[in-house]
Each structure stands twice: as C-alpha cells, then as structure tokens.
Amino acid sequence: VEGREEGSGVPAFEKDPLELTVEDVYDISYVIGKDLLKVSRVGAEVSDLQFKIVRVLEMFEIMVNRYNLSLEELRMERDNWKEELGRVVAEGSNGNIIGPDKLVIDLKDPNRPRFTMQELKEVLQERNQLKAQLLLAQEELQLYKSGVMPQPQQNMENPPSDPPLTTEESIEHKDEKTTIQKL
Amino acid sequence: MHFIPPVSKNRIISKFPKCYNPQACLQMKEDWNEKAKSACLDRAARQHGMDRLKMSKAVVVGDLNVGKTCLINRFCKDAFDRDYKATIGVDFEIERFELSGLPYSLQIWDTAGQEKFKCIASAYYRGAQVIITVFDMADIKTLEHTRQWLVEALRENEPNACFIFLVGTKRDLLSAEECQRTERDAVKIASEMNAEFWSVSSKTGQNVQEFFFRVAALSFEDAILQEIELSSSSAVRIGDGEILKVDAGDQQDRAARKPSCC
Ligand SMILES: Nc1nc2c(ncn2[C@@H]2O[C@H](COP(=O)(O)OP(=O)(O)OP(=O)(O)O)[C@@H](O)[C@H]2O)c(=O)[nH]1
Ligand SMILES: [Mg+2]
C-alpha cells in the first residue's frame, strides 16, 4: 500500500496487542517484508532469517485470527446468558418459578396470590353453608306464601355440610338444629 | 309432622325415565322396581316418610372447560353462559323432585376441573351415591381422562355403592357423523367404567332434563330399596330381642338405618 508511512509510523505497531486484527498483521508483514528486501542482497544468513521471519508472521496471523474467533464466541455466549437472565428475572417478578418449588411474589402486583389453600377451603366452606341456609330460607318463605305452614318451622331439609354428610348421617342428625349450626 | 314445600311441577317424575343408549345403560327395566313401587305407595298413603326427606348426593367431575357447570346450570336454572368462568374449588345445587308421590332431593356437587383446585374438590367426593364423569364431545382427549377422574372419585367411596354416569357435552358442536363416532367411542369406555352414557348439549338443552331425571330416578329407587332391605333385616333382630325396645316410629327408622352387619 503506497500511502503508508514507514517504520514505527505504521499504526498497527502502536496498537494494543489484544486489539490486533488479521489486517493489522498483514500491514506489519508488508512493512517487515519491504525492510527485508532492502537487506536481501547480503547473504545466505539473511535469507534464512527472512524465511524465519515470514514463518513467525504466519504464526502471528493464525494466533490473532484464533484469538478473535474465540473472543467472538465468548461475546455470543455472554449475550445469550444476559438474555436468559433477563427472562428468568421477568418470570420471577410475575410470581413464577425461580427455583424448584419456589415462588417470587411481586408485592406491588394487585393480582398477586394472597390466600393459602387452607384459607380458600375455609372461605368455600363458609360460602356453602350460607348458600344452604339461603336455600332453606327460600323454601320456608315459599311455605308461608303458599299458606301451608302456619308458623315458622325449622329444618325442612338437611342442608349440605362441608364436606357433606351422607344421607344416613344427615338423617341421624335431624333432631339437631341444622347441620350448619352444628358445625 | 313436618311440612315440605311443594315441588315445582316440572320436577315431578311419574314415569320411570329411560336410558339414552341401551348399549351403555345401568338398568334396562321399563318401570320402577316392584318392591320399591309398593313401598312408595304404602309410604305415600300413610304420609310416612314425609318427615324424612330423602336426599342423595351426586358429584360431577371431569377436565376443566368440558361444561360441568353449564350442564348443572341448564338443568337447575335453565340458563346457559357462553363465557367460560372456571369453578373455584367446588359449588353445589339442590334440586327437589317428587318421585312416585314421594319427595326427593338431589345434592349436585359441581367440582373444579383445574388441577390447582383438585385437593379442595376431592374432599367433596366422599359419600356420593352418584358419580357423573363429564367430557367434551368436541375434545376427544377429555374422554380419555374420564377414567382417571372416576378412579379418583371412587377412591373416596365404597366400591359398588355408586351409580356412575358418563356424560358427553357440547353435542351441538358436532356434525351428525362426528357425533355418532364420538358416541361409539364413549359407549365403549362407559361399559368399561360400568357407567351409563348420555350425550347432551347444555347450549340447546338437548337431553339435559332427561339425563337428570334418570339420575334422580335411579338413585331414588336405590335409596328406597336399601331402606327396605335394612328395615327387613333389623325387623328380624327386633324379633330376636337383640336391640333396645323402640316405640316411636322415628326412632325405629333410625335403628333400621344402622348397618345390619354389626
Ligand atoms: N357449544 C357449547 N358450549 C358449551 C356447552 N357446555 C359448555 N359450553 C362452553 O364450554 C365452556 C366451559 O363450560 P363450563 O361449564 O364453565 O366448564 P367446567 O367444566 O365447569 O369448567 P371448570 O369449572 O373449570 O372445571 C364455556 O365457555 C361454555 O359456554 C355446550 O353444550 N355447547
Ligand atoms: Mg365449572
């Protein structure tokens, strides 16, 4: 390359060795090759030295090339890990798994899980009892309306219990107030 | 004497309901069992038993989204909702019938199909006289899963103590040929499960009332027959003087309900 400066004026010589590219190696080889030509007339020792220098430059080329490839691989690997980490963190903040059988809960999320299974069970039981009472009350109301029953009367039916009693069990208990009150 | 509110007219079952498909049917007979029939007549005439309202328990199980809640709502409320709202844990309805002149109630327990509620729902399987396993006729893998649902429901109950039904829902979504093909598969599985097969649509209401009438009739008749059996075996024991002397009819009935084995 004609425009290049000679000697240590070549930028490749000034670079951080870890940042060298194969092109830099070619520049260095070009400059050294030109210098070698100037002394080539001197003798057999010089041509032997020339040969060795060319060989070292080839080795240099291979090493820089290899180094850059591994660097590229490492960068790609690092980027993959970054992505993976981001994904896991995002999942974690949604309340998903971050380890075997573990959960991360975002306390700012209004839809975060708040109740335990046990609490849900209890709420359901209470709901079922209230529903059974409502059904009973509706039937009694129906009776007053139809005039079949002159006075308030309890226990038309055994309401479902939680978990419900079998027919036999509920009949056994018919003298008690209601299954609900009993519970 | 207790009073019982009148049963609504469309819950009076006077004729013995037929099965849907004779190939997967729990009982082929055309009419009530003779013994049960005369027991009912007798009871109705004496107004006896009116103070003891019979109640059976049915549990409805199956995959999520197969249409369990819709099936129950169609029958109990004559309503249908196109939007899916998952059942949380468990819910129930009580339907009152009049069969052979006697009042009868069915507790229908609607369980959640979602895996996360299984531990809650399964606590309600116990003490069922009827197990209704439901699948979506338009989603064939839900039919396969009914076996597992049945195993889990049976685990909580006495063997051979339950009537088992296999119900295919959403038949309105299938063409006639598809429907036939799915029913053929279902009948096969039903006979393996010892279940009676029904094919229904909660959307149109097709076969829904027929199905529940059949459930009510079979479980009612079974309850009556069991009671006859128990009271006859305890009558012998009363004769043997093995149990306390009883005078009130109510107490007698209660004694009669004690298992005859002990
Ligand atoms: N076309 C049609 N759709 C139906 C029928 N039955 C239910 N569906 C629809 O199926 C969906 C699920 O119905 P559900 O009854 O809520 O299902 P489920 O089995 O109770 O579900 P879980 O409570 O989660 O176990 C709803 O969107 C219904 O509208 C039917 O007969 N025909
Ligand atoms: Mg449901």
UniProtKB/TrEMBL annotation, chain A:
UniProt domain RH1: residue ranges: 8-91
Compositionally biased intervals (Basic and acidic residues): 170-183
Coiled-coil region: 57-91
Subcellular location: Cell projection, Cilium; Cytoplasm, Cytoskeleton, Microtubule organizing center, Centrosome; Cytoplasm, Cytosol
Primary site of residence: other
InterPro entries: DZIP_RILPL (IPR051241), RH1 (IPR034743), RH2 (IPR034744), RILP_dimer (IPR021563)
Region feature (Disordered): 149-183
All copies of domain RH2, residue ranges: 112-183
GO cellular component, one term: ciliary basal body
Annotated GO MF terms: dynein light intermediate chain binding; protein dimerization activity; small GTPase binding
UniProt feature, compositional bias: Low complexity: 149-159
Presence of the UniProt keyword Coiled coil in the record: yes
Any single biological process term in GO: protein transport
Pfam family for this entry, one: RILP
Keyword vocabulary terms for this entry: Cell projection, Cilium, Coiled coil, Cytoplasm, Cytoskeleton, Protein transport, Transport
Name this protein carries in UniProt: RILP-like protein 2
Automatic annotation (TrEMBL), chain B:
One annotated GO molecular function: metal ion binding
Broad enzyme group: hydrolase
Catalyzed reactions: GTP + H2O = GDP + phosphate + H(+)
SUPFAM superfamilies recorded: P-loop containing nucleoside triphosphate hydrolases (SSF52540)
Protein's UniProt keywords contain Metal-binding: yes
Any Pfam family hit: Ras
InterPro entries membership: P-loop_NTPase, Rab, Small_GTP-bd, Small_GTPase
Keyword annotations from UniProtKB, A to Z: Golgi apparatus, GTP-binding, Hydrolase, Lipoprotein, Magnesium, Membrane, Metal-binding, Nucleotide-binding, Prenylation, Protein transport, Transport
Cofactor requirement: Mg(2+)
EC number assigned by the record: 3.6.5.2
Protein topology in the membrane: Lipid-anchor
SMART domains: RAB, RAN, RAS, RHO
Similarity annotation: Belongs to the small GTPase superfamily. Rab family.
NCBIfam families: small_GTP
General function of this protein: The small GTPases Rab are key regulators of intracellular membrane trafficking, from the formation of transport vesicles to their fusion with membranes. Rabs cycle between an inactive GDP-bound form and an active GTP-bound form that is able to recruit to membranes different sets of downstream effectors directly responsible for vesicle formation, movement, tethering and fusion.
Protein name from the UniProt record: Ras-related protein Rab-36
Organism: Astyanax mexicanus (Blind cave fish)
Lineage summary: Eukaryota, Metazoa, Chordata, Craniata, Vertebrata
